Amino acid sequence: MTGFRVGTRGSALATTQTTTAAQALSEMSGLEHELVIIRTEGDVRTGSLAQLGGTGVFASALRAAVLDGRVDLAVHSLKDLPSAQPEGLVIASVPERADVRDALCARDGLTLAELPEGAKIGTGSPRRVAQLLAVRPDLQMVDIRGNVQTRLARVPGLEHHDDNAPAAAGSPRGDLDAVVLACAGLDRLGMGWAITERLAPTVMLPAPGQGALALETRPVTAEVPGAGGSAADQPAADRLARALAEYDDPATRLQVTAERGLMERLEAGCAAPLGALARVERPEDADEQSPARLVLHAVVASLDGTRMLRKHASVELAEVRIRHEDGTPDVGVLSAARQLGVDVAEQLLADGADLLDRA
Ligand SMILES: NCc1[nH]cc(CCC(=O)O)c1CC(=O)O
């Protein structure tokens, strides 16, 4: 191994964020890298995401490429990654998170409060539909999908003329007052200009893991099928493993671990729209030694936004770190983060979160 191969979906967003991550890892490791585009079922089919069986379709082809050794690592949007961790794969790095908020991209610079009565809003996300209707029950929600450019082209004035990332042919244009997307994706694409309001998490809690990436690899010690990993490869593999650990952001990993713990616990018994956001808080006058808290806020809503169950809880963190000095993982602090998610999920279930999706 003199370099490493990185699997990515082919969309403009996926290749942009994969390039950023791969370049950082190359710099940290001194190894070259090559991008390998993996076509996923979610990119090929055009039905609604719900019909395709959820967002897992984006991740499974990438995961297969890591497992069979075609690539050394895959870069996923963490929010698209099913919470069950497949055998033979580990999330080796969760880099520092981008803006977690959802973005309103409206015509004429309008904010959510300024949108006219009955305005048409495009989103394919039940989580976004429910939370928007909770504050603006007059809005007309339109189910849309497609890449970022295709979605933005639905709003007059937000068409982006870029031959490298064109809006899909045949998709309607300029027929909506606004669309809602993740700030992180737009910022990474250099399209923050299209955002007319970054929606406060008090109004719109993001999806678990939104704005974060997950870099998935085979466990560092595993044999690669067919790659004949000789002893001579070891130093390069070690350099990559060390770069992945260095690129990992402990605070982000703690946040997303709590958010995914919540999602995992709810998936069993609740199909209703879910928003969740964790953050690390330090007391105002904190010095280096004082303990931080991990705070998790969550909402489960009825799709029409008329019923919203909200819960939050926190745990004290002895330290915001997930590794010991010698680089081995500190399992205790991560399991405390996960447990925080499970606890908040159980509070939501105790209040009837599992009944909200059947009204
Ligand atoms: N489900 C698609 C998806 N997956 C990740 C992002 C944005 C980037 C991120 O949240 O990290 C998006 C687009 C969107 O929701 O607007």
Automatic annotation (TrEMBL):
Its EC number is 2.5.1.61. SUPFAM superfamilies: Periplasmic binding protein-like II, Porphobilinogen deaminase (hydroxymethylbilane synthase), C-terminal domain. Residues 254-349 form the Porphobilinogen deaminase C-terminal domain. Its cofactor is dipyrromethane. Residues 4-219 form the Porphobilinogen deaminase N-terminal domain. Keywords: Porphyrin biosynthesis, Transferase. It catalyses: 4 porphobilinogen + H2O = hydroxymethylbilane + 4 NH4(+). It holds the Pfam family Porphobil_deamC. One of its GO terms (molecular function) is hydroxymethylbilane synthase activity. One of its GO terms (biological process) is heme biosynthetic process. GO terms for cellular component: cytoplasm. Tetrapolymerization of the monopyrrole PBG into the hydroxymethylbilane pre-uroporphyrinogen in several discrete steps. Monomer. Belongs to the HMBS family. This is Hydroxymethylbilane synthase. It comes from Micrococcus terreus.
